[in-house]
Amino acid sequence: MKDSGPTRYRRVIVKLSGEALMGERSFGIDPDVVSSLSEEIAEIHDLGVSLALVIGGGNIFRGLEAKATGMDRVTGDHMGMLATLINSLALQEALEQRQVPTRVLSALEVRQVAEPFLRRRAIRHLEKGRVVIFAAGTGNPYFTTDTAAALRAMEIRAEVLLKATKVDGIYTADPVKDPSAQLIKRIAYLEVLERGLRVMDTTAISLCMDNGLPIVVFNIRARGNIRRLVQGEDVGSMVSE
C-alpha cells in the first residue's frame, strides 16, 4: 500500500449495489465494469486508505422479488446472500489482478471460497493493508445489504459509509422521472426517515443515526468520485446529524 498524501478519511466502507456490476447488461456481471471499478478501488488503496466494501446481489437474484412469486422469503434471502458472494469473488479476482491484496469475509460459512466473518479478523486484515469485501449480508434473512453495510461499518469503526448509486446524490424526487427534482447536499437522518427518501432502508438509516455514522450518497458512474470523497471534496449528498 502506498500513501500519496493526506486524505479526509482513513477508513471507509463502500456500499455497492449488485446492479452496479451489470453495466448496460440486463443480468449478471460486466467484466469491463468490474475491471474499471477495481482500478478505482486500487487508486484508493494506494492513497493509504483502509477500505471495506459490501456488495448487493440484485444483478443475480433478489430474495424479496422471489417472495412475490410464491417462494419462501427465508429461502429467497439466503439465495440472495449467495449471489452477493458471487459478486464479491468477482471483484476480489479483479483487485488481485491489480496486485491489491483482498479478502472476502462471508456471513455464511463457505470456507472453500471465503473466510468466515469475524470482526477481529476483519480489522486485522484492514490493519495489514488489505481490502476487505463483506459477503452474504448479515447472514440473516429479512435484512438488506444496506443494513449489512451499516452494521459492518460500526464493527470495523469506519469513519463514513459511502453509498454508491446511479445518480449524483439525494434528490427531492426521482430525477429520472421528475426533471424538476432538486439535489439535496445536506440532510439529517431524521428528515430522511420522515420524508421517506429512498437513500437506504430505514433499519440502516436508524443504525447510522444511533451511532453518528455519516452517509455520503454519490454517483459511482462518475469516474474518480470515490477518490474525490476520501480526499475531502464535496461530492454527492451527506446524511448526518
Q: Rg, please?
A: 17 Å
CATH topology of the domain at 11-161 and 224-234: Carbamate kinase
Strands of the widest sheet, in order across it, are: 4-3-5-2-1-6-10-11-9
Estimated structural class? alpha/beta
The H-and-E topology, N to C, reads as EHEHHEEHEHEEEEHHEHE
Please name the CATH architecture of the domain at 11-161 and 224-234. Answer: 3-Layer(aba) Sandwich
The averaged pLDDT comes out at 93
Q: Can you count the beta strands?
A: 11
Number of helices, counting only DSSP H or I runs of 4 residues or more: 8
Our measurement of the CA-to-CA distance between the termini, rounded to an integer number of angstroms, reads: 33 Å
Silhouette: globular
Strand content: 15-25%
Describe the main β-sheet briefly: 9 strands, mixed
- Give the helix proportion (percent range): 25-40%
Question: Given this structure, which CATH class of the domain at 11-161 and 224-234 is correct?
Answer: Alpha Beta
CATH superfamily of the domain at 11-161 and 224-234: Acetylglutamate kinase-like
Low-confidence segments, ≥5 residues, pLDDT <50?
none
Oligomer state equals single chain
